[in-house]
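Entry 14: structure prediction run for Spore germination protein. Input pasted below.
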Amino acid sequence: MAQQWGSLSENLEWLQEQFGGSVDFYVKEAQLCGTSCAVCLCDDLAGIEIAWNMLLRPLQYEKQRFEGGEALLQYLSGASGVAFSPTPVKTMEDVFANLSAGNGVFLADGAGQAFSFAAQSFAQRSPGEPDSEVNVYGSKEAFCDVLRRNMGLIRRRVRSEGLVIETLKAGRYTQTEIALIYHRDLVDRRLLRGVKKRLEKVRLQMVFDSGYLAPFLENNPYSLFSCVGLTERPDTLCAKVCEGKVAVMADGTPYAVLVPFFFTENFQCMDDYSSRPYYASFIRIMKYIAFFTAVLLPGIFVAVANFTPELLPGQLLYKVAASEAATPLPLFLEAIFVNILLEIVKEAGLRLPKAIGHSVSLVAALIVGDAAIKFGILGSPVVIMAAISSICGFVVPSLYQPITILRMLFILAGGLLGPLGIVLLLMMTFFNICSINSFGMPYTAPLTPYGAESLRDGVLRMSWQRMQGHVFTVEDLPGVKGGRRRGKR
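Run finished. Output tokens:
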């Protein structure tokens, strides 16, 4: 039941109960213009000096007197010279929400509403350089943790009137502000309705990251591959929005969620569009080769060495046989052990403080790895294959998680079933990729169903002269034509 407006003392008492007597809830009561008033804010979220300079100091020297708080609020909203734009707050619940968001709230005795004003002064991280989407050319700017500042980074890049940023709340206890970003002239209406409907069904107790919302936007939650993308770059988000996609951001995180997201986009980056077309196409092909190498190489090596050793050259076969004879574990168990060890090293280096994180890699490489080979616990061929596949996995960082799991599965399939197991698992992987769809759009677009778009900006990238007449958007997908509405609203 909504809290009814009462006298100033009753309203302040209700707010004190809501905050549970927290020491960071600050209230400054004063007589202004002949009316009992109060300025409320949360210490460290909002600045007391800001509230004083914006509101209390100008009203302290105001000579007019008002009968009742309603008249004072009307004066503030229209004829006063206070240096802020007050926003009416209609309910006491909204007063609490504004205080929790870092705004200041001005209450007047006898008024049936309040005014909120921006007085945020909390510590925040400035936009820095991207950590996971590093580029050579183009912008070096990444999102920060404050949603409102991220909105400004987006608005600065897309200046057309079609850009829309809607906000909603998520998380029962956290009441995290969520931003829904799209271009109203480019987005498919069915896609937009589907995203909004799924976000409205989020019933989480808490939301601290955009990743909390990603599972609610997926159609295949048990698939190894995700049809929801993540980005920390404002230019990448703006480019996807201009392709008709929808972005979702949560306050407190520097990552945005993109839907729909296609398999080919894992192999693309912003540098592709600043480089020469032939070099960008070469890099993309190299990434595809690195992906399949990271997934298949250890499994194929184990399958060939165990089931069809005649396929190996004589000298290599002799070294593999000698290495296997000198180690206590079967070849496929040895490969699994090495890959698990590499994942442990990576995780340890990632979670440890940066000052000592690099030493973990040195200890693992120089001491554990070298000593294990000399002592006869591990074989050199298996270590080399695992190292090559791990390095190739880093080339496509957005697919690192499925690459790691698939690598293990292919080693098991190759060690237990041989080449037949590799082929069967590879077919199952392709079937899984082809079965994924995001709001009715195939995960394999624009490669399948095949179209001219796959030649312009798919595995290869054509020149801007070839692409400027047509940029691939969600309207080009089967079943989506006519779905988007052109022109202004």
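Notes: The radius of gyration is 29 Å. Will compare against the previous run tomorrow.
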